[in-house]
Amino acid sequence: QVQLVESGGGLVQPGGSLRLSCAASGSIFSVNAMGWYRQAPGKLRDLVARITSGGSASYADSVKGRFTISRDNAKSTVNLQMNSLKPEDAAVYYCNADLIDSKWRRVDYWGKGTLVTVSS
User: Fold this and answer.
1) Cα separation of 109 and 65, whole Å?
2) Mean pLDDT by 10 residues, the chain (120 residues)
3) Alpha-carbon distance values, 35 to 6, 22, 58, 71, 120 (Å)
4) According to a count of CB atoms within 10 Å of the terminal CB, is the N or C end of the chain lower?
5) Which residues contact 68 (CB under 8 A, 6 or more apart)?
6) Three-state DSSP class for residue 27
């Protein structure tokens, strides 16, 4: 089936940077969009950034100007460059893929999440 593998999480100080990556593999016909969501303790999972296969990107207001999402359609990967990190950015970050599988079904898949900690 489809697997999403995330990497790049870790501990950084406020003002620091991290780059998250997510690779999708498996029975994929095409990818409509991929994105990153995050969930802090006691909070709802919320959109951070999303990018379509055509390159159109959307961002949460709280990360605009600091985060940049990019993709490599050939590899079905998505990256999130996070700069000027703030303590409120700390969360588990989840990769999401909106795709068409090998049976022509539109489905959403989620990664297991990667932890981002922002602390001095």
Assistant:
1) 27
2) 94 98 93 96 96 95 98 87 98 96 94 96
3) 12, 9, 9, 9, 28
4) C
5) 49, 80, 81, 83
6) coil
Q: Which two tokens stand for residue 99?
A: 């795709």
AA identity, residue 107: V
**Sheet strands (E) in 13-105:** 18-25, 28-39, 46-52, 57-59, 67-72, 77-82, 91-101
Give the closest residue to 20 by CA, choosing from 91, 88, 109, 99.
91
HSE (side-chain half, CA atoms, 13 Å) at 73: 12
**Both tokens assigned to 66:** 């600091």
Tokens of 5: 């593998």
CA distance 102 to 104: 5
